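Notes continue from the previous slide.

Worked example: a multi-chain complex. Inputs as given:
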Amino acid sequence: MNMLSINNLKASVEGKAILNGINLDIKPGEVHAIMGPNGAGKSTLSSVLAGRSDYEVNDGSAIFMGKDLLELSPEDRAREGLFLAFQYPVEIPGVSSTNFLKTAINEKRKYHGLDPMEATDFLKFMKLKMEEMEMDKSLTSRSLNEGFSGGEKKRNEVFQMAMLEPKLCIMDETDSGLDIDALRLVSAGVNKLRTPERSFLVITHYQRLLDYIVPDFVHVLYKGRIVKSGDASLAKELEVKGYDWIKQEVELAK
Amino acid sequence: MSEPEIGIIDQVVSQEYKYGFSTDIEMETAPIGLSEDTVRYISAKKNEPEWLLEWRLKAYRQWLKMEEPTWQNFSYPKVDYQKVIFYAAPKQKIKLDSLDQVDPELLKTFEKLGISLLEQKRLTGVAVDAVFDSVSIATTFKDQLKEKGVIFCAISEAVHEHPELVKKYLGSVVPSTDNYYAALNSAVFSDGSFVYIPKGVRCPMELSTYFRINAENTGQFERTLIIADDESYVSYLEGCTAPMRDENQLHAAVVELVAMEKAEIKYSTVQNWYPGDKDGKGGIYNFVTKRGSCEGAFSKISWTQVETGSAITWKYPSCILKGDNSSAEFFSVAVTNNRQVADTGTKMIHIGKNTKSRIVSKGISAGFSQNSYRGLVKINKNASQARNYTQCDSMLIGDKCGAHTFPYIEVNNNTATLEHEASTSKIGEDQIFYCNQRGIALEEAISLIVNGFCKEVLNQLPMEFAVEAQKLLAVSLEGSVG
């Protein structure tokens, strides 16, 4: 069974069509990479799936774990197990990561009819995950993302992913703005979270991230459509040849 | 702000004011309007000594000559003082000796507000004075406090029991003719709390006064006087609510604090007067004069306020730093929503040497509200090595509200050090969406973000009240969100 099934998805922002019919199936445990030139609609796809309100869905469907994803509010999508690692994680001054994650986890538990986690249980759980993800202890008390370096912010996204234990992780250009050391650390974190059940949709402009997070499938997005799909070797090919040959292929096909 | 955000604002439905009920109880009121007779009526009701009546009359005569101030950053329909009832008290047949004789209806009212006066249900560690319209209903834990020599009672009672203290300190920090509203209060004040902490005593529990306006067309004019003698400490908290009424009601209180040598007073307010409805109809005018005097060397006064209610809040809890090495703090959260107005801040007057003051103000405006910080830091000629740090942050929710800052600085001694930091931020759609994406819905997200913004101030509140205040912030902003 598919975890996520996207069918002919069309979306626009401020009246401008960005996604022009996306078809994509993701099964549990699979890692899919979406690549493509600037302006192809990569980030729009992640925003639409997560439910950002500035985007309008014009057609098509997205079924997540048997539910109509597009009918759910952004918070319910999250509670159902969809996680978006942001390209630009947002700062929330005065709110500690501990408080933020406790709220998030308990909101999710409430949604699933569970009692809130006891404070001590939560702190134990967080400590465990921090060790697992090799996070610095100071994280617990620091304000969320405030004054974090680019690398720290991205690592913190992956840490939140570990805490919230989602079914599907969408990573929106997680590699942007990272130096090679930070990229390794972030990728190592993601690889720890790979399980036979958990799926990933990795959106990236560059191939180098995929050296560390090796995908099962690579899709090329161009002008709001997936125009080519393949395995990890497609990413390597793109690295060598760039996107122009794909653009030409598409134009010729017309 | 872009269209979708306004969409979100509209989505959320406003929550009703939780304390808007009124109590049906037989009242005794002064004849409507204000004259010398009204002043005499109130004084007679309280069975006051001659000196106090004279003091009131002097204030009244001065008030007649004064003009309503117009420098504030808002306008409001003039209050017709001839249409206000200046004294309203629940009728009681006999003089109360114990709580058992308090009208059960009143006990129920306070119970409903979460303030239990009954022995078995009292909040441990907090003594409460409950003021209903113009009179104090009951004060809890009086005997336990007495053992330590702490006096905590209604000010009308203190006038009789401790006249020497009242006579000495009443009006010593806020003179009866200080300003228009202080003069009015001095003429017609009816009740309020009186606290005296003797030398060297650390008050064993939090002291708290809960003010409730109930009667219609009535103003509440309470007067609070707190004196901390040498090397003593007290933490005091004030809370307030009122029923939902279509008319604006006036609340013009005066609070005076006196801290002697090495004494410390911590004064916290959680103000939740009825703010009016979403169109700005009704609500309390909260025009209050609060001032503390650091009389003695090394004394300390700390104001913490969480202002969420009232149609208009107009107040500047201030400190006069007379004693050398004295220090003062002002921590404020002012939240305005719908059509509410707040013009609030502080005055720090440095007179003594090595005096220190710190101001942390957090203003949050939503809806169509206007929120102003107004503060004065004044360093007198002889206040060498004085220091002030001011931090003034505003947060805007939506694009129809306003945040304003009016800092005044007057330095007459060049050894002074002053720092001022200010910021304005907006709750962004990005922050909200980020929270949503982690499973946190809109209201909860706002509450989280706002509480984070106010954390420094909320941390100053006594534990029990900090939790209340956090909830209150969330409720006040419900329906505001973008």
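Summary box: Residues 276 and 283 of chain B are 4 Å apart (CA to CA). Residues 1-15 of chain B have pLDDT under 50 and may be disordered.
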